[in-house]
Amino acid sequence: MKKLFLIAVLFITFSTLSFGTIKAQENNQASDEEQLQQLMDEQMRQQLPPPPKEEIFRARVDEIVEEGNRDIGGYQNMFQKVKVRILDGAEKDSVHEIEHGGAFRITDQQKVKAGDNVVLLKYTPPGSESQYHIVDKYRLDVLYVLLFAFFVLIFTFSRWKGIGSFLGLILSFVIIIKYMVPQIVAGTDPLQVSIISSLIIMTTTIYLAHGFSKQTSVALLGTAISLVLTGLLSILIVDLANLSGLGSDDAYSLRLGQTADINFKGLLLAGMIIGVLGVLDDITTSLSASVFEVARANPKQKFKDLVASGLRVGREHVASLVNTLILAYAGSSLPILLFIVINPNNIPLWAIVNSELITEEIVRMLSGSIGLLTAVPITVLLAAKFASRETQISALGDFRANSEARVRSRASSKKTLPKPRAK
Fold first, then answer.
1. I want to staple 187 with a disulfide (CB 3.0 to 4.6 A). Which of 27, 52, 337, 416 is the partner?
2. How far is C-alpha 396 from the geometric centre of its chain's CA atoms?
């Protein structure tokens, strides 16, 4: 039954995935007017001067030649003259003396020292000499160490389940980067793409992390139902609040170029669904495990008793998770909160909260929290139903086994009784 359920889910998932891909391809077939407009745009681009050439290198700071402050428009800007050595690409091992800062302000954290690895930009305008600029510090070596330590800790504490969870994490990123983002850029509705992606992610990651069992299948079913309800609620709230999805500067930047035709309202909804998926996974798997453990510990527990136990656990879990979710959103929106507190232009508080940027974050936070609340009773009811049935079947099997054992014991005792002597 478990294999049949998994096959059915995977069949629906990949059938929907194929449908989404076909739909994206159909949306890419431009009309005659669009093709004519594209041709005119291409002709205009050909008449424009060629854009400057930009190349990115990894480099190391060999020496600080000079550093100090320079007066630029009444401001004292820090500057550094440094020698950098390129570490990769066609110009590997070449050394360049460049200025860092001066024309623009840099902070103490942006200053470099000898031995630092940096990201170097080579900027070549048409008909001019190339210019080199330090645009950032190189950090990937630190990230590699952190990733390795994270993997070791997961394996140490969770063994093979931790490895499955880690593989699920990698798979989630692959689905988002290789399927979800390209489909949205191709013109497919972001809400549809997010639902398909969520179905694939939660099916594979939950089974990879927790194994194939009735307990895991209940958690998956509870996650799916709760996610659908959260999506429907998010659609309703976004419509009632008249949100367009263009509340942030990033969304406005996406309106330029090849991403101009994206459905930004759908993109906002997709972000809500993906954001709440991970937390739903956490609460449904833990609740399902709790109910099944209670049923195994006391097989005489009835359905209503299992529901009551599961709800008590769920209340405690939700109380902490909602707080975690709100703090996570508040942490990511800390610059906005600082702007609200400082309020340099004395804008009324109601006008700030009414802005689409703030309203989007509030709606995202509330819809995610409501999704968690709906997940508790749904998962508890499903888990209690299947757990009580499993314990009943197990108890019936034990009863039959004990009965058969008693019958065999009586039969063997009759065979071993001594025969009466003949008179």
1. 27
2. 44
pLDDT > 50? residue 20: no
Answer whether 114's CB lies under 8 Å from 85's CB. Answer: no
d(CA 77, CA 87): 29
| CA–CA separation, 305 and 82 (whole Å) | 72
pLDDT number for residue 23: 43
The pTM assigned to this predicted structure is 0.66
List, as own/partner pairs, every contact residues 196-200 make where C-beta atoms lie below 8 angstroms and the sequence separation is at least 24, other chains included: 196/13, 196/16, 196/17, 196/20, 197/274, 198/227, 198/273, 198/274, 198/277, 199/9, 199/12, 199/13, 199/16, 199/224, 200/13, 200/17, 200/175
Comparison of pLDDT for 324 and 12, the residue scoring more: 324
Taking only the tens place, the pLDDT of each residue in 61-115 is 998 888 888 777 667 778 888 899 999 888 888 999 988 887 777 888 888 888 8
Neighbours of 203 (CB within 10 A): 18
| 3-class SS of residue 299 | coil
CA 218, 166, 191, 35 torsion: positive or negative? negative
d(CA 188, CA 25): 9
Residue 259 is given by DSSP the state G
348 vs 288: CA distance, rounded Å: 47
**β-pairing verdict for 53-72 and 95-101:** unpaired
Instruction: Domains for the chain: give ranges and CATH numbers.
Output: 54-138 (2.40.50), 160-405 (1.20.1640)
Total residues found in the chain within this entry: 423
Confidence of residue 59 (pLDDT cuts 50, 70, 90): very high
- Model pLDDT for residues 36-49, shown as the tens digit of each residue: 555 655 665 555 56
